[in-house]
Amino acid sequence: MAISAQFIDVRRFSGKYALVQPFQGVLEFIDAEGNRVAGVPQFIYCSGEFHNGYMRFMTNSGWGMMNNRLEKVIDPLMADLGEMGDNGFISCRKNPNDRYYSYININKEQMIEPLYEEAGVFTAGAAVVVRGGQFYAINKSNNIIYFDQTTPYDCLVSLGNSRIAYRDPQRNRQWGMFSTEGGNPIGTLYKEINSFTGNGLARVMFDDNKYGYIDKNGVEMNLKNGHAYKATDFQEGIAYVKYNEASNYVAVGTDGDTKFELAEGIIPYSDFSNGLSLVWKKTTQGEYEYYYINAKGTKVGSGWIVDGNEGRPIYAPIVDDKPSPQEDTNEYCWEITYRDTQYGYSGTFYLWATRAEVESEVSYYQDNRRMTVTYRQYTVTDEYSCKELSGQEKEEERYIQKIFVNDGTLNDWKDVPQDKIVSVVCPENATLLGLKSAKIYADEKCIFIQIVPDAETITDRSWVPFHVYINTDNSDATGGYSDEFTDPNADILLEGAIYADGDPCSYAPGVFKWWGPAGETGWDYWIDPSVEHSADDNWGAIVAEGELVGTMSQNVNGVFEIQIMRELIPATWNKTEFGIGFDILQNWGSVGVLPLVSPTNVNPNGYAHKIKVKINK
After folding, report:
1. Alpha-carbon distances, residue 152 vs 135, 146, 184, 360, 520 (angstroms)
2. Residue from 439, 405, 433 nearest 419 by CA
3. More confident site: 269 or 474
4. Domain residue spans of the chain
């Protein structure tokens, strides 16, 4: 059975259900017949994936959990809630002011007391946690699992398949792995190591900067043509590899042999799920065509096109561009695309109308909503399919801003969900006191920041740089910079001033990306080290100072309020969460960092992981 294209976003089936986003309405679940599932707990976010029979969800009141029958089993009142572990333990922070995570069971009984700044999911008897800025692996008795007590490590990641990855700072920050039962390291070290998939293979990067696959014992799978220039993870026994920059992608099996080759220009978009994989290619008209293929590489169905920079299908039928009036009517199907000239957000919708009516609609958008609008006659196979689309607009692109900068007040922060505002305060015994506190809120388009500098520390206000470090994809496998944070995973740096010539000034930062190896540190990696930089190329910035559209700021009684248009920063963004940190300088030396923890002998500066911010959509 096929389920008709009626959603702007879909997730793959997990158990009996799939999470979907209709053209109009809220997120909901459908069954295998495409029917809406009634009686599901209301939520504003959930992953759509069951973990060990349970799925967490979020409401305006907090996080809760439902079982695989979509029945609520934990009320959505938790400040944060992790996925269900395979031992029945769930990490949680019960209250917004709780600093540490504990572990509870499905009955909300505490199994491990609140001790950890971060707490991962239990897999194969072990979980990765952070305490005092240090990574540990623990078992269900809360005992630390050591693989080698003499070897330091600065990051641990659960890989599944009874394995945990560690990063060795003494060996070029390369990755190895050890068993969840402890013992000696397994196999060798790699530049990159990814999670084990259902086929028992993990994708790794070797010293030659190319990819291959290993099993849980560190034994390398023999790819037919050697290590790959690019590679995806195995799903359902198939992975995509590209052996060199000029070659096409090929699908390989777990034996390393080629199953089929994709034609020139065709690129994998998703791994295989339920026997199908989504691929795409750029057409001669500059559009993007998406379609599914089966495990033999054969195209399934007609596919979809998108006309711009979305990079994912919008579930419109593939058609040609020739105007095709419907019979016996002066009405046509029009595709209207708009972009906001101030904030940069955009969208596409469809209108069944006469030419005069569509021109009137376009004039309204241009005159009343600060829009640039283009439109074209949209050819469809029948009248009903266009009328069904008529007036539909992608729900996720209807952006309603609730915090406004440059209004002389901070009162509008009361208008957003308070549980989505993340706050951090500088410890009283910190050694770097230049930043007193910060608040962060993120909606579907923007990041909003309140930052309070310490007036006694920031005395030279002739030029005061303020940095924003962002882990955009919420991953430790990309980015770097551990000079002031214990998680070297920042992908993007914003650099601008908040004081100039003694007074508060508009924050108009340049944007820099991380060019170094993943997990590396050092300021020099914020520009391309292979190129000599000058004012002609904005000193290596990927967006020049003052050119990041939608960035605004104001100073309200000593509080700097900053708006950053997140989606216009050229980076890969996680759809639900990112990490963020800040520092402030005097004479180009850091005098304030957030977040911080209380200093110790081991961590005298009190450096910590960046703040996790969940995006409110």
Report:
1. 10, 11, 13, 67, 16
2. 439
3. 474
4. 1-60, 332-393, 411-614
